[in-house]
UniProtKB/TrEMBL annotation:
Cellular component annotations (GO), alphabetically ordered: respiratory chain complex I
Entry-linked PANTHER family: NADH DEHYDROGENASE [UBIQUINONE] 1 ALPHA SUBCOMPLEX SUBUNIT 12 (PTHR12910:SF2), NADH-UBIQUINONE OXIDOREDUCTASE SUBUNIT B17.2 (PTHR12910)
InterPro entries referenced in this protein's UniProt entry, alphabetically: NDUFA12
Stretches the record annotates as Disordered: 100-132
UniProt keywords, alphabetically: Ubiquinone
Biological processes per GO annotation: response to oxidative stress
Protein name: NADH:ubiquinone oxidoreductase subunit
């Protein structure tokens, strides 16, 4: 099922085209703590070296850590391990995007939370073009 999944799906790992391009022109640069692998090779129309990521699992751009995002967009030249300071103790770990899941934020008044909003406090006055 692995080969068929790569042929017919784009949301889970690399497609066949990306895998072929990576095997021909890609050079592995590094790997992050989630298992995503980063490559570079070839040049784009602007003359910059192409950089890309092959995700370990579902393709979700929010899974790229900030330091590797900077590398992908040519903000830093070397790998994040060689160019950036070590992470601070106050930095939080990655949390996946929870949109569309039961863990997503829902404010009071949302239908998923019963749909009951707080009563209006009366501090709102509607605008009228005749009011001066």
């Amino acid at each position: 099922m692995g080969i068929l999944a790569n042929i017919f799906t784009w949301w889970n790992g690399a497609t066949i085209g990306t895998a072929l391009y990576t095997s021909r022109k890609g050079t592995k640069v590094g790997e992050d703590h989630q298992g995503n692998i980063y490559y570079e090779g070839g040049t784009d129309p602007n003359g910059l070296v192409r950089r890309w990521v092959i995700y370990n699992g579902n393709n979700d751009a929010s899974r790229v850590p900030a330091e590797w995002h900077g590398w992908l967009h040519h903000t830093i030249e070397g790998t994040p391990e060689s160019c950036l300071p070590p992470p601070r103790i106050w930095e939080r770990d990655y949390t996946p995007n929870a949109t569309g899941t039961p863990l997503a934020y829902r404010p009071s008044g949302a239908l998923e939370k019963g749909g009951q909003r707080q009563k209006a406090t009366g501090d709102y006055e509607a605008w009228s073009p005749d009011a001066s």
